[in-house]
């Protein structure tokens, strides 16, 4: 037995107690989180239609082949890429900026925080509906406001055109996700020792220099982690799109995860949906490895 | 960075963002109190024709009371169970050393890398086997399973901040580990427990896809699922829908508004999913 607490040596009875405390949670995780992963791997290699459960059988790589040969596949991948990185860029920069502005306490900051953190507590699906109404071509408030302000002459076909559609869902996603970055970055900023900031000031650093030479290097590890978590989260966040466009018009605003939902619900093709889920996991896994390698390399070379 | 902007610039930026954040909700609220014939009229400030008709219709003609009740029961029960299991697990991970602890921790963390969406089909098949399809119990169990890993890690963070001397004193005073946890440690960790509870509640309240797949009878639908069928057709009745959206978001807005302080410290204490 290698582990010890600070005072007592580990004993079998202590270990049994720890296991007793841990078992209920561990069981739930095994049944409801890890078992489904194994089952998904199995489903990914089966032809499985919900309404034809008697004809289930392994079909090798057919699900994957069908997905890759699907005429929508390339566009869905491209959309996912745009959705993730454009959303992330704006969420991160706006979130970082707001966190910097909110670092120093001001009057009513509590109320202010309470209000701008609200999106975090809201259902992505319901907010998707709200944004659908705002972006409505004929009766939406956005086109109306833009017309009244003289910024456009003709109504923008926000949700009936693929490119405008992508722009619309990304704007909504930026609205939705900035909160996360503000909360996390604000917490990280409060961890920066005031002595370091004072020292920088004494050395005559201006705000830019303080930001890039002191603050960012200090919270770098946190930033790397939350960006990674967020990339995974945004990839697997079809709720907004589901509420706004359902992937439409004609599949033009589908990302991987909303396409997966469509395969699951509309097509009832669970083999395809599972294969798509597995592909997403693989892509994210490979991405994570490269991401961690890249951020570590950057640190070692001292950039 | 913001020296050039100065102080008034700072507040201008903050105000613009506040406007952008609140406006969609304001707009939905405004639409919901417009009379049906004015839903498409683009005025920006409520006028004397404001009415609660849309809300009345919602509860009288569409039985939204039942959907709200279902959502409330599932979210509350799931969150209580999550907290119960989470505290026990968190206590073991915070206070005991044992062989394989590092691996257990890794397993808990690894769950955060698994997209919830891939569990949808397997959980349906599992519930089918257990005879828990179209059942609020089945849905609650699935939510508990999904929320336990993160909640345990979050609670562990809070328990770790409490000095172990506290439970040791309780043990000397005749408590066993279990009573020490619930009489001494849990009360001190209460803010953390509250934050975890709210986090779990909000996630369950907002969950759509699992509920959509598992539940099919009217009487068992949770709120988001009912909304889904509400917009089923090509034509959307925005008056009623906006009232429904408002009803759906108000509970989490209120809870979050009251607890945002706890939430902020609580969420940044752990690795966050959501």
UniProtKB/TrEMBL annotation, chain A:
Its GO biological process terms? transmembrane transport
Family annotation (InterPro entries): MetI-like (IPR000515), MetI-like_sf (IPR035906)
Report membrane topology.
Multi-pass membrane protein
Q: Where in the cell is it found?
A: Cell membrane
Major localisation: membrane
Q: Which CDD domains match?
A: TM_PBP2
The record lists the membrane-crossing segments as 16-38, 81-102, 114-134, 164-189, 210-234, 270-294
Q: Which SUPFAM superfamilies match?
A: MetI-like
**Parts forming coiled coils:** none
Q: Which Pfam families match?
A: BPD_transp_1
Protein keywords: Cell membrane, Membrane, Transmembrane, Transmembrane helix, Transport
List residues of the ABC transmembrane type-1 domain: 77-291
What is one cellular component GO term in this UniProt entry? plasma membrane
Name of protein: Unannotated protein
Organism, as annotated: freshwater metagenome
UniProtKB/TrEMBL annotation, chain B:
Q: How does it sit in the membrane?
A: Multi-pass membrane protein
**Residue intervals passing through the bilayer:** 12-30, 72-94, 106-125, 137-159, 180-202, 235-258
Q: Give the GO terms filed under biological process for this record.
A: transmembrane transport
| CDD domains per the UniProt record, alphabetical | TM_PBP2
The primary location reported for this protein is membrane
Per UniProt, subcellular location reads as: Cell membrane
Tell me if Transmembrane is a UniProt keyword of this record: yes
Q: Where is the ABC transmembrane type-1 domain?
A: 68-259
Any single Gene Ontology cellular-component annotation:
plasma membrane
**Which keywords appear in this protein's UniProt record, sorted alphabetically?**
Cell membrane, Membrane, Sugar transport, Transmembrane, Transmembrane helix, Transport
Gene3D superfamilies xrefs: MetI-like
Q: Which Pfam families match?
A: BPD_transp_1
What family, per the record? Belongs to the binding-protein-dependent transport system permease family. MalFG subfamily.
| Protein known as | Unannotated protein
